[in-house]
Design brief:
Elements: H1 5-10, E1 16-18, H2 27-35, E2 40-43, H3 49-62, E3 67-72, H4 78-87, E4 92-96, H5 101-109, E5 113-118, H6 121-129, E6 134-138, E7 144-145, H7 153-163, E8 168-171, H8 177-185, E9 190-193, H9 195-198, H10 207-214, E10 221-224, E11 231-234, H11 237-247, H12 252-259, H13 263-269, H14 293-311
Helix pairs in contact: 2-3, 3-4, 6-7, 8-14, 11-12
């Protein structure tokens, strides 16, 4: 029986956390991962408050294991999301894209375990000072919104582990048991995995997006929109439009107009592979199939355990 600070903190079997990704991480995926022994997260960033509440209640009905909610701190209706997780007695909240100090104390007053996602050791220290119980150190390889520093997971994880005392969860470029073991050797006590779970049967993403993911190759994703909020995308017609605008010296307002509303939904949820925003990580280049979430958890853990045992021989 494996046990460390992360499994104990979340009361889970394996230190494998499914990232709370927009347009992918609904109640079906979160409950499936939790039932398999990991920690499932509902991604609230693409949900209206009433939709989040519905997903939480359906997740409660689908699993008796711990699960959490990921809340991007830039979300317009964040106060409503915070109130919902408190009212629904969610045990674990992951925050990202902002300063955790604003809400960490309130959440902890209600007995909620708080974890914050960072892209630098500087922000890791601030998260620890804000009272967070653990930190996700997310490297440059990750999909979706990313750090401006462009620090890779291999560099970021040991840097963060060096400056904080709370448990560190590695994220960015992790989809296999071997990669999980590498992250743990660097000092992490768990891993947060996004792209591999997008390519799951339970992810709410459009099948066309899942197929684009499993057919992507090295170099097919790129970090862009750095003047706004840096985001890693699959190259497509929308990305080409961004590049064209930036090459012409487009200002922030022009890029916001190009991005518009619903661009991510259009790509990842509705399946418009040319005009939508397709957020995914570099590790998509080594993901070749769409599996049940439970099989993904089992495969990662079995490979992790086998490789660790062989390494100790």
């Amino acid at each position: 029986m494996f046990s460390n600070r992360i499994t104990q903190l979340f009361n889970i079997q394996y230190p494998i956390i499914q990232a709370g990704m927009v347009w992918a991480s609904g109640w079906r995926l979160a409950s499936a991962v939790s039932n398999a022994g990991g920690l499932g997260l509902i991604g609230s960033g693409s949900m209206y408050p009433e939709v989040l509440k519905e997903h939480i209640q359906k997740c409660k009905a689908a699993t008796d294991k711990p699960f959490g909610v990921n809340i991007p701190l830039l979300y317009p209706d964040i106060d409503k999301h915070i109130q919902i997780v408190i009212e629904e007695k969610i045990p674990i909240v992951f925050t990202s894209a902002g300063n955790p100090k604003t809400y960490a104390a309130l959440l902890k007053q209600h007995g909620i375990t708080v974890v914050h996602v960072v892209s630098s050791s500087k922000f890791a220290v601030k998260a620890q000072e804000a009272g967070c119980d653990a930190i996700v150190a997310e490297g440059f390889e990750a999909g979706g919104h990313n750090g401006r520093e462009e620090t890779t997971t291999m560099v970021l994880v040991p840097a963060v582990c060096k400056v904080v005392n709370i448990p560190v969860i590695a994220a960015g470029g992790i989809a296999t048991g071997r990669q999980m073991l590498a992250a743990m050797i660097l000092g992490a006590e768990g891993v947060q995995i996004g792209s591999r779970f997008v390519a799951s049967q339970e992810a709410s993403s459009h099948m066309k997006f899942k197929e684009a993911l499993i057919h992507s190759k090295e170099g097919d994703t790129i970090l862009t929109l750095k003047q706004l909020t840096p985001v890693r995308l699959i190259r497509n017609q929308f990305y080409n439009q961004v590049q064209e605008q930036e090459s012409k010296g487009a200002i922030v307002e022009e890029l916001k107009a190009l991005l518009g509303k619903g661009r991510a939904k259009r790509g990842m949820f509705e399946g418009d592979l040319e005009n939508g925003e397709l957020e995914i990580g570099q590790v998509s280049a080594i993901i070749n199939d769409i599996l049940p979430a439970a099989d993904i958890v089992k495969n990662i853990w079995n490979e992790f355990a086998a490789v660790m045992e062989n390494a100790l021989k």
